[in-house]
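#struct-help
A.M.: can someone run this one for me? Single chain, 376 residues.
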Amino acid sequence: MNRVFFDLGVFLYWSEESKASKSLTSKGGVIVSNKDALKTLKDKYAEMDPDIVEMLRALKDAGFSLNVCDRLTQAQIKECLKKLGIFEYFDYFVSAKTEETMAKALNQKRGKDDFMVFVGTEELIIKAATRNRIPSIAYGQDWANVKALAFSTAFYPLEVEDQIHVTLLIHCIVEKTIEKGSRVLGIDGIAFAGKKVLGDKISRYMDLLGKENIIVDLEDYHRAVEESYKGEDPVEAYYFNGYNSEKLIDEVLRPYRKQGKIDRLVYCLDSTNESFVNERHYTLSEEGIMILLGTMMYREPLMRYFDTTVYVRVDYREAEHRASLVDVPIYGEDPLETYKEKNIPAQKMYVARHDPFDKRDFIVDNTNYHRPFFIV
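D.P.: on it. C-alpha cells below:
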C-alpha cells in the first residue's frame, strides 16, 4: 500500500502562487499552530486553497491511501476535516503529542511492504517521520526551518503531488537495489537527462534508510579534449575515447569488487590545465552501495560491473533546451554546439549499437523533470 500522511497545516496554508493567482487577501492565511487551526475553523474564518482538493482527488485516483497525523485528538482532526469539506478523502487518523509517541503511532500504521511519505508543516512530525525512516516533504510558511530534516520541499499543492510521485519512484529504485544485494547501481543517460539530480535523491533516500552509499561520476574520468576528438570523425572519437573507463576500472571498480570495500584517493583530470590534480576520495564498506553516474556506460568494459541498472530517458529536444541554458562552457567548449555536434550523435550511435533500454531494471522518462515516471 502507498500511504501519504499530512498534518492539518497543509490544508490551511495558502502558497504565494495561490494568493497571487486568486487575488486573495490575508484571510485564511497560514496556520502553524494546532490550537489556532482549530480555533480558526470553529470561528469559520478559514478558507482552503481549492488546489488542495484537486491534489487530494488526484492522489486518491492514483491509488494512494491518504491519512492525517497531527497533535490534535482524533475527534478534533475529524472535526477540522469535516469543516473543510475533505473528510471523505482520508482513511486513517493518527494523533500524538510528542515526537516519540508520534513516531510509534506512525510505525504502527506501517505494513511490511508499505511505501509511506509525510507531507507537512510541523517540525515535530517531520522529526518523528525521519526517526521512522519515512521520507517527508516540508510544506508551508516555515519549510526553510525544517529543510535539513525533510527529504524534499514543496511550495504549492501541485508541487506536493509531484514530490510524492518522485519520492515513490526513488523508493522503488532503492528498494529493489537493496533487495538484490547490489554493490553497484548504474544510472545512465544522455547529458542533461537529469542523472545527477536522480542520483542525489537516491543517495539521500539511502541515507534516510541508514544505507551507506557513495556517488561516483564518470564525468570525473573524461579524457583530454584532443583525445576526445582524435580521428577523422569527432562523433566516433567521442564515442570511443570520451571517457577513461580503464582508469575508473583499474583504480576504483576492480579494487572495490575484489576487496568488497574501498578507501582510496584517486586523481582525476582537470580540464583547465590537462593535469591529474582533481582529488576524489572514495570510502565505502562491505555494506555500502556505489552509485555510478554516466553516459554511454551500458557496454563493455563497464557493463560487467553493474548489479542494478537505471536508464534515464529524455527527449533530445528537451535535453538540447537544457544545454542551451548552461552559461559555463564544458571543457572549454560551447555547451549547445557540443551537444548538437557531438553528444547527441554519439548517444544515437550508442543506442543503435547497444540499446541501453534492453534488460534494464528501471527506465525513467525524465522529459518532464517535475514528474518523472517509469517506462514499462
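A.M.: thanks! Confidence is low (pLDDT under 50) at residues 26-32.
D.P.: also worth noting: The chain has 14 helices and 14 strands.
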